[in-house]
Write a structure and sequence with these properties.
Strand content of chain A: 15-25%
Oligomer: heterodimer
Distance between the termini of chain A: 23 Å
Structural class of chain A: alpha+beta
Largest sheet of chain B: 9 strands, mixed
Mean pLDDT of chain B: 90
Strand order of the largest sheet of chain A: 2-3-4
Low-confidence stretches of chain B: 374-399
Strand content of chain B: 5-15%
Number of helices of chain B: 15
Radius of gyration of chain B: 20 Å
Number of helices of chain A: 3
Order of helices and strands of chain B: HEHEHEHEHHEHEHHEEEHHHHHH
Order of helices and strands of chain A: EEEEHHHE
Low-confidence stretches of chain A: none
Strand order of the largest sheet of chain B: 6-5-4-3-2-1-7-8-9
Largest interface: A-B, 14 and 17 residues
Chain lengths: 91, 399
Amino acid sequence: MLDRKLRLSSKVALRPEPFGALAYHFGNRKLTFLKRPELVEVVRRLDGAQSLRSILTECSIPQDLWNVYTDSLTRLMDSEMIDQIEEDSGP
Amino acid sequence: MTVDARPSGGALVDQFEYGLNSPICLTWELTYACNLSCLHCLSSSGKRDPQELTTAQCEDLIDELQRMQVFYVNIGGGEPTIRPDFWHLLEYSVAHNVGVKFSTNGSRITPSRAEWLASTDYVDVQVSLDGATAGVNDVLRGEGTHAVALRALDNLANAGFADAKLSVVVTRENVHQLEAFKDIADSRGATLRLTRLRPSGRGADVWDDLHPTAEQQRDLYEWLVAAGDNVLTGDSFFHLAALGDPLPGLNLCGAGRVVCLIDPIGDVYACPFAIHDRFMAGNVLTDGGFGHVWRESELFAELRSPQSGGACSSCSAYDSCRGGCMAAKFFTGLPLDGPDPECVKGNSVDALADPSRIIPSASQDHSRPSARQRPNHACDESPLSTTTFISLETLMAQQ
């Protein structure tokens, strides 16, 4: 997970809330609550980033908390909120 | 808003108590006009209000909902499809990323309309039915309405509309029909949605006779627990959480915190069951727009402040039910910081029996004159004949 390239689904909108954000998927109509502002920041930085690892480092997330973030992002993938960008074999 | 008092982290439900930047569950009643006169109508609908929002005003409101990222609205009425611009507003809303679920009695869901609905994305339809049999339903909703609702569900199913909702208000008369309702929904590829009978609007006139008995509430709770996520409740029955494990949902009064209602003339109320001046937060036309009302109204700030459990705080079940439904208390004349009128611990029995209890008078009524006519024949044994309470207004006039 840490080395994957991920992106927020084009069908998802993030709405800022005092506790973090609310993510809504316009396709499957699922509503998910991101309960930490730090998680929202990580999700916002997915597009264009090299890997999840690089974002967690940039955001100064302590390494002992990385598993919390990989769990959250795995759940967001399961509900189709974020997609994995497939690495092409060539250009 | 008391943002500074908000805890950081913790359970979502604790966050919700302090309110959100925009509502999650917004109900918008488009018109007070209705072709039916259901005895328990929450909004006392019947006649159109001359001040109802124009098409342009509705579009402006949808634009604002889009800016506020309100991702979907529950449209109701009245019968919303009566508005000549209803289908236009539906398309306008979806085109502006505000999805729609609309409630209807089904009378205008023709085969061709059902086909059109099936071809749209992002629209959900909810058909109301309050008896699994015509005998039970039509007493409450009017002659022939059972057949109309079933025909609408059939038209939707035949058109390939996936997952319509069958919406049922649970009453003393239909609570034994839950399995039959489920069959009606299942056989049409629809999902059953059960909601609580509220003593709001004309519901105040019939609530005493129609709200489920304590025993029926226990049966309903068991049935809902067994049904789990297969039956929707719109978080309607959180007062039953005191009977055991919580039901699926927030189990929180969301009024003014995550929920609100916009009525046909643009008045904003704390929740769909609280159409009364006491719970009016402002107006979208005269108070700076919906967003301003949502963020700045004094009423909503009050509802988002930590609430005292009042008489309930010493009850062992308070953490489960949190005192129940604010609107149900208000419209039965009970204190807002005391038990729900259907408190499963029986803590409201004395207050309900108190002869000095005063039912608040309605602050709006769009009923057609015939809708409030009571049976006046001695031989009429309808279970729906009402108990008449003296209203606050009448008392004041007498002094």
